[in-house]
Fold this sequence. Notes:
The protein has strands at 20-26, 40-46, 53-59, 82-88. By secondary structure, it is mainly beta.
Amino acid sequence: PPQVSFTLELEFSCSILLDHAEVTLQATSDSTEATPQDNMVKLSVPIRYEPNLFLSSNTNLHRYEVHPLGTFTHSSGPEFTTMVKVQNLGCYPIQNVTLHMALPALGYDQATILSVTHVLAENAACVLQPLDEGTQVVPVPPEDLLHMDR
């Protein structure tokens, strides 16, 4: 029997959110057919909306001095603020978004190079968690930083 293939492209409104779409397909002919009851099919397909998330960050300190080996003092350096923003640029609501950030905390010889003093959050619940005990922290030797621009 002859077959026809085609693609159906549906466009949905931002104002009405649907969880499924129903499509009815019917084939007709001018000729007489013995089994016309199988010429129609109803399809129901689930709809999943594609998120359009935008992640940005900004900091008030773009330069940080790293002291040569042996001259490092244990006093805290300048305080800086980093703002991380997650925006939904799409028109569909998004639920259960989780953002994980790993912050560098140890340098050469286990020296602390960063400590978080406080976390402020808007429209989100933030949890500051130390590393799990099973997680191995690998310090960055100074010579490896020579080949990195950031």
